[in-house]
Each structure stands twice: as C-alpha cells, then as structure tokens.
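Many introductory courses stop at the sequence. We go one step further.
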Amino acid sequence: MRGQCRAVEIGGYYHPDLAKIGEAMRPSATFNKALAALQG
C-alpha cells in the first residue's frame, strides 16, 4: 500500500527539529497567510 505523502526529514525520531516539523506540517504559504490573518 502506498503512503499519502512523501518522506520528510525532521531531524530525528526522538528529538526532532521543531522548525522542520513546522515546515512539514504547514507547507502551503497561501494557507499559512490565511491562518495568520485569522489569528490577528
């Protein structure tokens, strides 16, 4: 069975890099702008 997404390097399994996780979880610049506008 094929996965839904591509593999992403997050800097480790037990102690991942939070910046890399943020980039992987929110890849759309347009959607990020919309969320930022809603947050004020």
